[in-house]
Each structure stands twice: as structure tokens, then as C-alpha cells.
Amino acid sequence: MRRGRILILFAMVLIFGVVAVYLLLGRGGGGGGQVTTPEGPGIPSDMTQIVIAAQDISRGSVIPDNGVTLAPYPADMVVETMIENDLSVVVGRYARQDIARGAPITSNMITRRAGDLLGTGSEAAIAIPPGYTAISVPMNRLSGVAYALEAGDRVDVLITLLMVDMDPDFQTMLPNESLALVSPDGTLLTALVCRELKYGDRGPECTNPEPVMVGRVDVEETTSQPIFSHPVEDQRPRLVTQRLVENAAVLHVGTFVSEEAQVVAVQVPQATGATTETTGQAAAQPVALPPDIITIIVTPQDALAINWAIRSGATLGFTLRSPGDTTETDTASVTLQYLVQSYSITVPSRLPYGLTPRLEQVIEPVLPNDGPQPTPSP
After folding, report:
1. 277 or 316: whose pLDDT is higher?
2. Assign residue 284 a region: left if phi > 0, alpha if psi is -120 to 50, beta otherwise?
3. Is 50 exposed, middle or buried (0-12, 13-18, 19+ CB in 10 A)?
4. Residues in Cβ contact with 248 at an 8 Å cutoff, skipping those fewer than 6 apart
5. Residue 314's closest CA among 157, 148, 102?
6. Residues 19, 24, 25, 31: is their CA dihedral positive or negative?
7. What is the pLDDT of residues 94-125, one digit of tens each?
8. In this structure, are residues 253 and 150 in contact, taking their beta carbons and an 8 Å threshold?
């Protein structure tokens, strides 16, 4: 009994299979109400066919015949830029951007002209949040936290300026040069002395061999006598430093090029008596250069401030923040007066003894790595 049921079931499956094959072949031979295409069987009425990439197509290349194909796509999801049912619209055109295999091809991805290509932009721009911009700042080992900075770090930007007193009208550094003014009849119109007076065609002229010194009248404390004081050197600029930008993101350290492009060939001196190349020149060895520039993400206003600082010759430096630290703090500009008052620095007294040799400037420590010591790259 069971064997008979199995035979009947097998016979029904075989019959249904034969009917399905017959119907399929019949429709493929020209019957049926569905639309057929050269690329495949008919598709339902609620579907259409769009042009997609059959292979990876590089930017600027001509799209070949086998580079595209038709693929079914819901008709209600087709947008205006998609290309339907016609491969000839795409074949022979130039790709304006890189097109991945299987990606729908739209009208703005192709062009008839080879020069009308669409740049896809840099990967760096993707990391910049809306409303922000990236700017590059020169950097060295001291200002760049000893090259500890990496992409993704958060930094503060410091600025240091040298300020001087200026004449607001002349826009020149004070003090101004003082000259003696003499009337045509030889009368001195200023309080300064004209040491040499010469009479010419235009009348008397003051011809001092040297410019009259700029100074002021002071009263000597001991004798209470008026004396004329003048500076013995030019005006000293006054140093001030402050934080310019807070909590900026580091986008990149160094130049946006491949690692191979950052390696240059330098001449490495050889020891005395060492053999050289047949040409007599020392062999050039590739050396990895340290980064000299950093790109940070800031607001457009902060970018303008940083650009002004760079163009004005101000000194910029960076401080490294802790990961995830979003604390905002107020800072005060630091000057000599601020240091003396805030850190209880005692102004040295005038003593009857001193150091020898004479010390007129702070001696900077010399670090062993400051000198040019190229290191061969691995």
C-alpha cells in the first residue's frame, strides 16, 4: 500500500515538471504577455530594468559594452537620474567618477567629454563635521609636543606675540625722530638746539651731522637739577602669550601624501677610509623626515584667527589634551607682570657682586637630537 502511494506521488511530480518545462519553453518562444529583453526572461509589470555596472569602472575610463548590464528594479522606486532599458545611453561614455560593480548608473555619473570628470573629493573631508573647517599649521618638535600628536588627538593652540608702542598716525614704532625747526630769519622755533646753522638760497638751514637725540627732561634725584635723558637702545618688544583655540581635533600630522613620497634620499657621510661607489660618491640612503605641519579641525572664525597668526609671524604651539576631555576653562594672558605677580617671582636686587662671565641672555639647553642626524628608514 505504501509502495503504491510513493509511485503515485512520483508520477505526479514528474507530470508537473514536464508541464512546467513546456510552459517555460512556450513563453520563451514568443508566447505570453510579459515583455522580454535580450538580457533575460520577462519581468512583472510592476518592475522595470535599470542600467548597472557589470564590472568596476574607474574614473575617466570609457565604458565598454561588457561594462554594463540591465537589472530588474521596482518601477515605483526609479528616480529621474536612473537610466532604464537602454544600454546604448551608457556604452561609449566616460565615467565621471569611480563606479563599483553592481551600482546603478545615473546620468550624472557619465559624460560625453573626457575632461568633464567629477571629483569624488578627499577622504579627509569626510572626517570634518558640518560647520567646521580644516587648516594646516607649521609644526616642529617643540611646538608639536615632541611629535607625540596623532590623528584623532584633541589639542589646544597657543599663540605668542611681541608687542611694541607705535605712533597711531605714522604707524611706526616709537619714539619718533625729533627735528629742529628754524624760521626763515633764523629764529629757532623748537626747544631743541640746532648745532650747525647754514645760510643758503632759502635762508638758514639746520645741518646737524647727526639727528637730534630723542629724549625727555628728568630731574636728578640728588641735585634736583634738570637733565636731558635719551634711550640708549631701541624699544624692547613686550612678550605676551595666550590660548588661541581650545579643544581642536587633529585631522592629520604631516603632509597628505603616500608614505613613499615622504622618504627622500640624502647623502650619508662615510667614515674615513671607507670604500665608496665606483662613481666616488657616497651612496644615497632613504631617510624618513619628521612631520613639519599639522592639520586641525576648527570653526571658520578660529581658522581666520590662526591664518592671521601665521601670516603675522606669531609663534603657535600645541598642547595635548586627555582623550574625551571636553572641559572648557578660562585662561589669562601671560606677560612678565603676570608671572611676577601670580607666581611670587622676586625681582632681583642690585647687588655689589655678580656672575662672570657676563650673562646677558638665557642660555638655551642643547639637546642631542637637535642636530641633523638622519636615520635610515626600515
Report:
1. 316
2. beta
3. buried
4. 154, 155, 156, 157, 296, 297, 298, 302
5. 157
6. positive
7. 988 889 999 999 998 898 887 676 566 677 88
8. yes
Q: In 308-340, which positions are buried (b, 16+ CB within 10 angstroms) versus exposed (e)?
A: ebeeeeeebbbebbeeeeeeeeeeeebeeeeee
pLDDT score recorded for residue 272:
55
Cell triple for 180: 629742529
100: Cβ–Cβ under 8 A, 6 or more apart, which residues?
A: 53, 56
Which of 291, 333, 366, 265 has the alpha carbon at shortest distance from 138? 291
Closest CA to 143 of 314, 364, 298, 338: 314
- C-alpha cell read off for 234: 631701541
Report the length, in residues, of the chain. 378
Q: How far apart are CA 254 and CA 137, in angstroms?
A: 10
What is the pTM for the complete model shown? Answer: 0.59
For residue 231, pLDDT beyond 60: yes
Taking CA 67 as the corner, what is the angle to CA 62 and CA 72, rounded to the nearest 5 degrees? 135
CB 282 within 8 Å of CB 267? yes
- pLDDT value of position 258: 52
Q: Tell me what percent of the residues of the chain surpass a pLDDT of 70.
A: 67
Which residues have C-beta within 8 Å of that of residue 154, sequence separation ≥ 6?
247, 248, 249, 250, 320, 321, 323, 325
Which residue, 312, 309, 316, 321, is CA-closest to 294?
Answer: 316
**317, 160 in Cβ contact below 8 A?**
yes
* CB-CB contact of 292 with 257 (8 Å): no
Q: Is the predicted pLDDT of residue 191 greater than 80, yes or no? A: no
Which residues, in sequence order, are bridge partners of residue 37? 40
Contact predicate 310/316, CB 8 Å: yes
Rounded to whole angstroms, how far apart are CA atoms 344 and 240? 18
